[in-house]
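SEQUENCE-TO-STRUCTURE ENTRY
===========================
What this section holds: a protein sequence and its matching fold, both as plain text.
Question of interest: how does this chain fold, as expressed in backbone structure tokens?
***
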Amino acid sequence: HNVIWSGISSRTSYPAVPDERHGTALSCTILNLLLLGPVWSFVRGTTAVLIDRTDPVGLAEAIRTDGVSRITLVPTLVHDLVEHPDVHREDLSGLTHMIIGAAHTPPELRQRWYDKFGTWPLVGYGLTEAPSGMVRDRAGHRANSTAAGFPLDPVEVLVVDRNGVDLPDGEVGEVCFRARSGGRWAGVWTPMLGYWNRPEATREALRGGLLHTGDLGHLDADGQLVVRGRQNQLILRGGANVYPAEVERVLLTHPDVAESAVIGLPDERLGERVVAVVVPVAGCSPDPADLSAHCAVDLARYKVPEKFLVVDELPRNAMGKVVPRDLLPLFGG
């Protein structure tokens, strides 16, 4: 039932429209894309369109010629469509819903999509252990552009401290999920059975009757989940927490920066130092001193990267997520 509940739930939260055609643009060997693509469409009774192009011009052409009306994309593909000069608003005029998932989506990227294509993109959050989407934005709800959305029907989201104690709204802790305790969806959802041949990791992830995600976040006053980043990617600089996503968001407001990634470099004195890798906007050459000054306007001094590298592209995995460990060699690590 975990394979089909997200599609069933969507029937009420996002009712299908006549002739709906849902596009999937990445490999269906990735579990979440299979569930949120063809299986999702099957359960909704709509048409699934499998797209074999991920270059921006080819993807836009496929969306147009195949009549795709809604699609789920990773931030990388969204960025490419927004930035490519040969992709125009009319190319995606038939696209009424676009959902971004699989990685952190900066509010600036959502705004740039809206400015170019005229539709407000929705965002979501999920993980393979779930094994699907768990949180989704609501159409027309823009109160908090940094949030990933509200928990879907079968689940409840909690934020807990290191001892597993629930934290109040606004306080950052580990994001966890459990089955909804009341209503028609009570007890329907179950997490994964476990990691293959990794009993200790399984016990850690499922301790206390919760699915522990390993992600840091908090709930806002409306009950939306705001994800701050991975626990193992949190930078501890001189005893102070630095959330990479916060620094990346500020960097993306610089007019010369198209993409950014922030990591911590080991340091004998401070534990870690904050550094950043940026991809420039086409035709631009970001100046490190200018980037530092830009960050200092909105960030505490200890959060401002001490070093900036400009690269042509960021290393990513099959889901389009940046792989932080692959950035370390760029700094000699």
User: Anything to note?
Assistant: The chain has three domains: 5-127, 151-228, 234-331. The domain at 151-228 is CATH 2.30.38.10 (Luciferase; domain 3). The chain has a mean pLDDT of 89. The longest helix spans residues 31-44.
